[in-house]
Amino acid sequence: MSASSTPWHCALRAGLAVVLSLSALAARAQDNPLRTPVFPPPAPASADTASANQVGNSQEFATPSVVGQGPSKGLVAHIERLTDFSIKSETKNGPPNTANATVTKNSRAFIKGYIPAWNRPHLKVILGINYDREEFQFNKPDNSVFFRNLEDKGLKVLGAQLAVIRPVDDVHWYIARVKGELNGDYTASELDVEDYLKMSGEFIYGWKRTKYFAWGVGLQLSYTFGRQSVYPVILYNRTFNERWGVEALFPARVSFRYNVSDKTLLFGGYTVDGMNYNIKLRQPLPNGMQTLILRETEFKPRLRLEREIYDFLWFGLEAGYRYNASFNTFDDEGNSGFSLFRKGTRPRIIDNTLGGAPYASIELFLVPPRKFLNKTLNK
């Protein structure tokens, strides 16, 4: 074999041929330039509906959203129902009394709406409103004054919130939110804002490592665990591959996600829910009290399906099991519902022990239409 035919010389000749060919193509391109020399970045996957947060684009601004998450919800209507469960009630303040019954109805419903008041890549301001209602019925309401007072009473929540999502740069972001709610059994004619107002809020600072992974740490002031308290939170959103991901705001909720398709999502995980109602009793307790605070805390393992019906309209089905951690009443006498931080501990009036129960819910929600999202991406 001659030196001129060695593998090294063959590779050199092939390389020279490629360079000459590319040079000729470049020369022709100068004479006849392309009409579209620069192409826009590819659009995100069709399952990614958070395009307002620039998900899927080159990361000019960081946000907590990741590719693969479900659609952002604009308007939500939700109904939830539990099966029958037992309740045992013990009076701790005043004449001792123990009562047992079965809760034959515990239904919940809410409507929530979110409006983007300001939507720019470097700043997003979202206004939210919500109305919730919860009702109870007992098989033996006469066994307890507390049962009789709670029977068919509408426990309501009317709230408004302001949330700010602020990307700092292509890696860092933060979320700030403040929320006010009127919680209790009030009617329009007897509503006293100071008695029923509950305030909550949060601040989370985070990092966007890739378009598939964002996380953050912060603090929440909320009633998730029954009483108003401040506790640390960890936000963790991650898409591992085209099917699997996780969405968490620990410790309040954690969900593992499975993307069946761009129109069907499955979730499995848990939530910790907390409610706090001010109640004015129809009939005084044996100790003479007529106002109470009811605190609920529950742990709910769950499975959830979200499915597109038509472009901007989706539905959700959820089922799980409710473990009740707290359903107790406390003295509200002489206390304002507006105070953000309280000193001391309220006297406990009634201890209630609730049995576990399966639950199911159905939900309809509106999301941004795909045409709108595509226009947003192409701007």
Automatic annotation (TrEMBL):
KW Cytoplasm (keyword) present: no
Region (Disordered): 33-54
Record's signal peptide: 1-29
Organism domain of life: Bacteria
DUF6268 domain sequence ranges: 156-362
Keywords assigned by UniProt, alphabetized: Signal
InterPro entries reported in the protein's UniProt record: DUF6268
Name of the featured protein: DUF6268 domain-containing protein
